[in-house]
Amino acid sequence: MHTLSLIASALTAAAEAAAEAAEGAHGADALLAPDPTLTIATWVTFFLFVILIGKFGWGPLVAALDAREKSISDNLQRAESGRREAEQLLATYQKKLEEAKGEADALIVAARTRSEEVVQKMTTEAKHQATAIAQKAQESIEAERLRAVTELRTIVAEASVSLAGKILQEELTPARHTRLIDSVVAGIATKR
């Protein structure tokens, strides 16, 4: 910083010397006539400025520009790396989502299959039970019918024997015949 202030002082002094030389020549010809002292002072000032800027100013300026360029480049690389990571994560999550959908579909299919199997099994069991109940009912009805037929045969046989016995004991007339049948039927009704 101290060096820059010395350079600035030297440049200011050179500029003042050039201005004094320009004031020394008066009139319209002073602007058009070249003054060798002023020209040399201007060139010396210019070269000193270029040397000082090259030595003290150009390096920090280039370093600052390089640092800025590196910072931008690093930011772009980080952004590109982040984008790639995001794409990879997205692909991973999409793959996991597809796998989860596949598993869910498989579970749904398995559940449907299992429910159909259970329904089929329950339907088959219900049909077997209904068939067994119907067969038992049929057997029970048949047994009751046979019992009723046997009982009816017994009653008819007893009534026939009783009627035959009474017929043999008495002589039958139509009125007696009707009375005899009525008494046998009444006897059958009371036996039940």
Task: Map the helices and strands.
Blueprint: H1 2-24, H2 29-32, H3 36-169, H4 174-191
Helix pairs in contact: 1-3, 3-4
Any overview of this molecule?
The protein has 192 residues and is mainly α. The chain contains four helices and no strands. Helix 3 (36-169) packs across helix 4. The model has no long low-confidence stretch (mean pLDDT 81).
Quick structural summary:
This protein has helices at residues 2-24, 29-32, 36-169, 174-191. The protein has 192 residues and is an all-alpha fold.
Overall, the morphology is rod-shaped
The percent range for helix content is over 70%
Pick out the low-confidence regions.
none
Oligomer kind = single chain
Tell me the number of strands: 0
Order of helices and strands: HHHH
The secondary-structure class comes to mainly alpha
Q: Note the beta-strand portion.
A: under 5%
Query: Largest sheet, described in full?
Result: none
Distance between the termini: 141 Å
Q: Over all CA atoms, what is the radius of gyration?
A: 67 Å
Can you count the helices? 4
What value does the average pLDDT take?
Answer: 81
What tags apply to this protein structure?
192 residues, mainly alpha
